[in-house]
Amino acid sequence: xxxxxxxxxxxxxxxxxxxxxxxxxxxxxxxxxxxxxxxxxxxxxxxxxxxxxxxxxxxxxxxxxxxxxxxxxxxxxxxxxxxxxxxxxxxxxxxxxxxxxxxxxxxxxxxxxxxxxxxxxxxxxxxxxxxxxxxxxxxxxxxxxxxxxxxxxxxxxxxxxxxxxxx
Length: 167
Ligand code: ADP
What we know:
Elements: E1 10-15, H1 22-34, E2 37-43, H2 54-64, E3 71-76, H3 80-87, E4 91-96, H4 99-115, E5 120-125, H5 135-143, H6 154-163
Parallel strand pairs: 1-2, 1-4, 2-3, 4-5
Bound molecules: adenosine-5'-diphosphate.
């Protein structure tokens, strides 16, 4: 019998995580307290031209969540709802920063619900100090060797230094 039949609330937090930031980590920590199990699922999206490979993104997430026993890191390339069926999960977690996130998130949540009526999306608002933080901004700062220590965990800072090492 599946875990969910025993009343376990399994949620999936999908995203690119290229790389994971303190904003993502804040959502992970807070939602891990709400759900019994949280699967952070790295999207293997070939159209986005990522800086870090899926393996690197997954490994960084594993390192920065190693103290959270009910958080599991995985990756997927399929449609999210198909992946969720495999995992027997019906709950999606997404973070909301500013109003600018809203329209896209609403579109995705309603599409996923249309594709599978049992899917529910939960939005967690960002802690104000992280509302303007994104993986793209972090990469932009790191590319020009600016300080990213307040924006990402130290493991990610090191990995960024590796990618943008001065030649
Ligand atoms: P995607 O490409 O799916 O948007 P991201 O890795 O950029 O993937 O984001 C994954 C999720 O994390 C999204 O729900 C996004 O809104 C949320 N998120 C990203 N940055 C932050 C932040 N600073 N605070 C809260 N939520 C965030």
